[in-house]
Write a structure and sequence with these properties.
The chain is mainly beta. The chain contains one helix and nine strands.
Length: 190
């Protein structure tokens, strides 16, 4: 919980500094598709589980932009079907994921933008199997802004999930997932 307060404090400091530099409000809705999601769980006693998935992602970035620099909050929601592969067979899950995080980036004058994001709250629910995983996500993205008001984005995402809740019981896990995502966004400054 203390980490979340530190993250919110950092965001408030970024807003304060950005306002003194004649910043613009950044509103950026985004729509993406996870081309290749994969990962594994090496929890002791449960055996190795491999994951494969892909699906839609959408969300909204809110923040400030000044002199090419941008910073703010991001909310991303994902929906996808996940295949679980174990030594005894394959099963599927229907996943819903909500992520809240911070991003910092820069708009280069050559029609390219780049950013990094840290999602401190990642909740992934398997509605089919009635389980919930929590953790965090790190994102590295690049956008191409040759078209007016449109950014075509490529992202690499690393998801670390460390807690599983099933039937009211919580256990520690060690899930690591990697995603390659392509999408579009509308980076509007007001």
């Amino acid at each position: 919980m203390y980490k979340k307060f530190k993250v919110v404090g950092l965001f408030l400091a970024l807003i304060t500094f950005a306002q003194t530099a004649s910043a613009s409000l950044l509103v950026e809705p985004h729509l993406s598709y996870n081309l290749s999601g994969s990962g594994d769980n090496n929890a002791s006693g449960a055996g190795k589980v491999d994951y494969d998935y892909n699906g839609a992602q959408y969300g909204l970035k809110l923040g400030y932009q000044a002199l090419g620099l941008m910073a703010g909050l991001d909310f991303t929601r994902s929906n996808f079907d996940m295949d679980y592969k174990t030594s005894v067979g394959t099963s599927t899950g229907e996943m819903e994921r909500n992520e809240w995080g911070l991003f910092v980036g820069y708009n280069f004058p050559i029609l390219v933008r780049g950013w990094v994001g840290y999602y401190f709250a990642n909740t992934t629910k398997d509605t089919k199997n009635n389980t919930e995983r929590t953790g965090n996500t790190t994102e590295l993205g690049v956008g191409f802004t040759a078209l007016p008001f449109l950014s075509v984005n490529l992202m690499y995402r690393l998801i670390k999930l460390d807690e599983l809740e099933s039937g009211g019981n919580k256990v520690g896990i060690d899930d690591t997932n990697r995603e390659f995502v392509v999408g579009v966004s509308l980076p509007l400054t007001l």
